[in-house]
Every structure is written in C-alpha cells, then in structure tokens.
UniProtKB/TrEMBL annotation:
GO terms for cellular component: cytoskeleton. This is Coiled-coil domain-containing protein 42-like. The keyword Coiled coil applies. Pfam families: DUF4200. Keywords: Coiled coil. Residues 56-170 form the DUF4200 domain.
Length: 340
C-alpha cells in the first residue's frame, strides 16, 4: 500500500548548495504550485458532504482573500505610478498651456502688426488715389475756369450793347441815377413775380391737400358707416336669435309653471289626505290631534307608526289564522282516520 502511494506522487527534487540561495527558487516553485491546478488520484476524490463543501468554500474564501490582498497591494502600487504619471501629465499640460499662450500671443501680435501694416498701406494707397483725383479735379477745374474766363470775355463783349442801352435809360429817366438802379428794379419785380408764383403754388398745394384729406375722410366715413351697417345687421341677427330664445324660455317657463301648479295641486291633495288620515287615526285611537295643521312631518310619523302597527297586526292575524287552519285540518284528519 505504501509503495503504491509513493508511485502516485512526483519525485522530490532536492536542491544543491546553500539553503539561503535556494529560497527564491523555493518560493517561486510554491507560487507556481499554488497557481497550478491540482490533480488528485481517483481514489482521493472528496465526498460531497456538507463538511467538505464548507471546507471547499472556506478554502475558496481564503484564496479570494489572498487574491484580494494582492490586488489591493497591486492597486496601491499602480495608484502611486498613475499619480506620478498624472502629476507629470499635469506639469506637461501646464507647460503646453503656457507655451500655447505665448505662441498665441506671438501670433496675435504678428497678426496685429500685419493688419496695421496692411491698413496703413491701404490708407496710403487711398490717400494717394485721393490726391491724384484731387490733382486731376484741380486740373479740370483750372481748365474749366479758363474756359469760363474766355466765355465771360466774349459775354462782356456781347453785353456791351446792353450796357449802352442801360446808360441811355438812365439819361432818359431821371428816377434812375445809375444802371444798377435799373437792375435793382428788375430784380425786385422778378422777386415779386417769383413770390407771387410761389404763393400761388403753395395755395394750390394747400387746396390739393385739402381735397385729398376730404376724399380720404369721405372714404373713411364710408368704411365706418359700412362697418356700422354690418354691426347693426349682426346686432339685429343676435336680437332675433335672443328673442327666439326668450320665446323658447318663456314657453319652457310656462310649462314649468303649469307643472309646478299641477304638482302644487297634487301636493295640496296629498296634504289634505295626510291630514284626513291623521285625524281618522287620532279618532280611531282616541288621541287628541296635537300636531299643527302645517306640521306634516309629525303627522306622517304618526301615520307611519299606525301603518307599522297595522302591518304587525296583519302578520299576527295571518299567523294565527294559519295556525287555526292547521289545527282544524289536523282535527278533520284525525276524525276521518278514526272513523275509517
């Protein structure tokens, strides 16, 4: 039996050398042995008893606790490494942000300088074009002035005839002292003519505005009158509708009045019947009619009590008559059977 057990086990490898040097290899082999799936012989299979299952669960729990401890230690080490990497990434991010800000500032300054240079070049070009246009306009103006000068010289020569005419007018009419007075008189007459023409034009414009306002007011009043006509038609339609509804409600009210009158008549008959029944019951019971004529509730209570008493009396009489009938029937049967 012992030989078979030794055959089933693996051969033991004894390390050579000092035991201290073999410690690392020993622990490594222990870890590999713990991680390897153990294969037990066929005859060494644990029986599925509660104790065995509990032991297996306890062993699995211990292995899970050991793995959890290892994972927690590994998580702590990884956390330290990740924190260091995260701090390094934060520092690189700050450096990148600072370099990006400085680079962005440098680009913005260069862009601003370029924009200022472009605006200055554009402004200088516009100033140059404006100066060129002004120079060209001045040249054209000088040419126009020279043309006007030549034209005025020709006109002065042409107007010499009119000057001689004005001088002759001054000599012939003593109210004019000089030719300028004649021109002033002409300008005054022309101004008066223009003033009259403007006043006439203004009056005509005022008349036209008044005509337009009258036409607009007439159109507005027409539309207002049409709206009033529509409103009146709508009100008439609503009045007819309301009048029809009033007629319907009056008919309904008359019907309700007739129904109320009929109900009132029935109520009076019922009250009279209740009062008469109450008086008869009081007379039958030899009781004084203490209830007032208008207190129908108390009268109905007395009537209901009398009716309940009559019903009880009827039940008792019916039961007694039934008992008497049964007794009579039994007596007849006994007599019949005794005679037979």
């Amino acid at each position: 039996m012992k030989k078979n057990t030794m055959k089933d086990l693996a051969p033991i490898a004894i390390p050579h050398g000092p035991p201290v040097e073999s410690t690392a290899e020993y622990f490594k082999s222990k870890m590999e042995t713990a991680n390897m799936t153990r294969k037990y012989p066929v005859w060494d299979i644990a029986r599925p008893t509660p104790q065995v299952l509990m032991e297996q669960a306890r062993r699995d729990l211990m292995e899970a606790d050991e793995k959890l401890v290892l994972k927690r230690e590994e998580e702590k080490a990884n956390r330290v490494i990740m924190d260091a990497k995260w701090l390094e990434l934060r520092e690189k991010e700050m450096l990148l942000k600072e370099s990006f800000i400085s680079f962005n500032k440098f680009i913005r300054e260069n862009q601003e300088k370029r924009d200022r240079a472009e605006r200055k070049m554009e402004a200088d070009g516009q100033v140059l074009l404006r100066k060129a246009r002004e120079t060209e306009a001045m040249r054209c103006r000088v040419a126009d002035m020279e043309e006007v000068k030549r034209l005025m010289e020709r006109q002065v020569q042409d107007y010499t005839i009119y000057e001689d005419y004005l001088m002759s007018v001054v000599r012939n009419y003593p109210e004019f002292k000089q030719p300028l007075d004649v021109l002033n008189r002409y300008e005054a007459l022309a101004a008066a003519k223009n003033t009259l023409a403007e006043r006439q034009e203004r009056d005509l414009g005022m008349l036209e505005n008044a005509r337009q306002k009258i036409a607009a007011l007439t159109e507005e009043k027409k539309l207002f009158i049409m709206g009033l006509n529509n409103t009146l038609a709508d009100l008439r339609w609503r009045y007819d509708k309301v009048r029809n509804r009033v007629i319907e409600w009056e008919l309904a009210l008359n019907r309700l009045k007739e129904a109320a009158a009929a109900r009132h008549v029935e109520l009076c008959h019922v009250r009279a019947a209740v009062r008469s029944l109450y008086l008869k019951i009081c007379a039958q019971k030899r009781m004084p009619p203490d209830a007032p004529p208008h207190d129908f509730e108390q009268q109905l209570v007395l009537v209901m009590r009398a009716l309940l008493e009559l019903r009880n009396i009827y039940r008792i009489a019916h039961r007694r008559s039934k008992e008497k009938y049964d007794t009579f029937t039994q007596t007849i049967l006994l007599i019949y059977f005794s005679t037979t």
